[in-house]
Amino acid sequence: xxxxxxxxxxxxxxxxxxxxxxxxxxxxxxxxxxxxxxxxxxxxxxxxxxxxxxxxxxxxxxxxxxxxxxxxxxxxxxxxxxxxxxxxxxxxxxxxxxxxxxxxxxxxxxxxxxxxxxxxxxxxxxxxxxxxxxxxxxxxxxxxxxxxxxxxxxxxxxxxxxxxxxxxxxxxxxxxxxxxxxxxxxxxxxxxxxxxx
Amino acid sequence: xxxxxxxxxxxxxxxxxxxxxxxxxxxxxxxxxxxxxxxxxxxxxxxxxxxxxxxxxxxxxxxxxxxxxxxxxxxxxxxxxxxxxxxxxxxxxx
Lengths: 197, 94
Hints:
Structural class of chain A: mainly alpha
Number of domains of chain A: 1
Helix content of chain B: over 70%
Radius of gyration of chain B: 18 Å
Helix content of chain A: over 70%
Number of domains of chain B: 2
Number of helices of chain A: 7
CATH architecture of chain A: Up-down Bundle
Strand content of chain B: under 5%
Strand content of chain A: under 5%
Largest sheet of chain B: none
CATH topology of chain A: Four Helix Bundle (Hemerythrin (Met), subunit A)
Number of strands of chain A: 0
Radius of gyration of chain A: 19 Å
Oligomer: heterodimer
Largest sheet of chain A: none
Distance between the termini of chain B: 52 Å
């Protein structure tokens, strides 16, 4: 019989998630201190963000997290077909999120609001800090979303071929954990960036 | 380890968790519409923490893992909170 340690695999995934908490935690700390120093500028700058797109993306991410969680239930019950469908819905949600972000960032870049632009340089220091953090934090989050999408695509193929099945599905669980982390970060990014006007 | 019974979360439970998370999102948006100045951010952060707790315990399955996982996650979050408190106290009262 082959050696397997599902608990160890999951524990390893959690240790990785802890490093991600450090990564984003540091950025949230920078945000907190900058916000304390420039609260008025942050309020003004946040008006430029599209809270509607932010809300849509929040809903999309929450739904995608639920479908990943449900896909684990489906695999545990031996229903791989349903699991593939649920993972596919998750990937569509990820795509919708990216398209929304494309329009959101695209509009800002179109009006000349991006790091290093003439408009950005002319803003006050506090506003520059806000938009720099906005681009960096949502950008890093989006990078995680892309990586999560790639991981879940691989997982979906393995569920389809049956490599992931009712007796062996720790890869799906770990892929799911990563996806929930992406959701978790957005839960804090959304109110802090979009809703502080 | 192989004799351990596997906990299967029903679809319905995940659906309820999703509904709760969506409801909390709308509460956050409504709260930020009403201007409570300094309180707004505190309430928004509090609701975000509740949402994070729900995601960690349900979607990330911590509710049903061995207590080792919960202790680890709890310790890491406690260390992060300490880092925030130390940094902010240093920054504000230096």
